[in-house]
Amino acid sequence: MKKNIFLSILAATAMLATSCSQTDDLLQPTDNGNETVEVVFNLQTPDATPQLRSTRAGDEETSTISRYVIEVYEGSDFAGIPTRYEKSDASFSLLLNKESQYMFLFWADYGTPDGDESNDCYNTASLKAVAPTDDAQKAEPAYFGKSETAITPSSSTPVTATLTHAVAKVILENIAGLVESTNSLEAVYPNYGSFDASTSGPATASGTITRTYNDIGAEAGVIVTDYILAPAEKELTNFSFTLNNEDAKAIGNVPLQINYATRIKGTFSNLYSTTFTIDQEGIEWIEDEGNDPDYNPNY
User: Fold this and answer.
1) Coil, strand or helix: which one is 7?
2) Could you give the CA distance from residue 116 to residue 135 in angstroms, rounded to a whole number?
3) From CA 189, how far away is CA 271, in angstroms rounded?
4) Which of 57, 91, 112, 285 is the right S-S partner for 293, CB 3.0 to 4.6 Å?
5) What are phi and psi of 187, to 5 degrees?
6) Contact between residue 178 and residue 124 where contact means Cβ atoms under 8 Å apart
7) For the chain, which residues make up each domain, given as ranges?
8) Selection from 183, 169, 275, 254 nearest residue 220 by Cα
9) pLDDT tens digits, 145-204
10) In CATH, what is the architecture of 168-290?
C-alpha cells in the first residue's frame, strides 16, 4: 500500500488590490510593482492520512500528521533567508510575484506548530538543517519534499510535488525468547547530524548516537521499531547492540537510506549464538494500524 503524500499546488490569478479571505496565511511578496498571483498549496494523501501507532513515548496511542512546514525561497536556488510557514493543517495560501521565481521546501511530521520545538521530535527551525531534538530518544516518521526547478507563478500552472519519508525505518526482530521478563536494549547507530531537505539528505555520518529501549518483553518477535536520519543514497553502516548488562554485539554492513526500512533479525542476547539477517525492505512502508512494512526488497 503506497502511503506517499502528494502535494498539489494549484495557482489562481489574483490582484494585489483585492482582498483575500485567507489574509492571515498570505505571504506578502516583494513590492516591485509586478502583478501577484495567489497560490494555494494543499497537502493531500491518496488514501488515509498516515497514522503513527507507537508514539515517541512508546505507548499505544494513535496520532496523525499534525505539523506542516513550508519554506519559500525567492530566486532560482535555495540560497538566502526563506519565508517560513508552519501550520496544523495542510492548506497554505501565498501571494507571489508573477514575474519572480521561487523554490519551495516542504516538511510534515507529528509535532505541534506552536513555535516551541522543545517537545517535538524534530527541530524544524530550518528545513536545510532538521535534526532530532534529542538523539537519545526514540524518533517518529517525518516527510519532506522540494521543488526541483524554480517556479514562476502564473494563472494556470498546476504543479504537483511529492513528499516522501525523510528518515530510515529500523526494525529489530528477536528470533528467540529472552530469559528476563523485562529487558533493556542499548543501540548504537551512525550519527548523520541533520537533514537538508534541499539536498534530500544529511551530510556524511560523523560519530554515533546511542538510544536505549526499555520494557522489552521476553517473547520473540519485533522488539523495536525506530526512525533515524540516513543518507539519500544507500550506505553500508555499522550498528551495535547491548542487551541488559551483556557484552555488545557489533553488526557490520547494515544498509541505510532514507525512505527505506532496514530489518535486523537475530538473537540479541549473548546467551545464544546467531548470524544476523539484514534486509533492506521496500521503498514504501505502512504507517497505519501498526502494520509491518510492505515487503519489496530493492537490494
Assistant:
1) strand
2) 18
3) 23
4) 285
5) -115, 135
6) no
7) 5-165, 168-290
8) 183
9) 888 888 887 754 556 667 888 899 999 999 988 999 999 999 999 999 999 999 998 877
10) Sandwich (2.60)
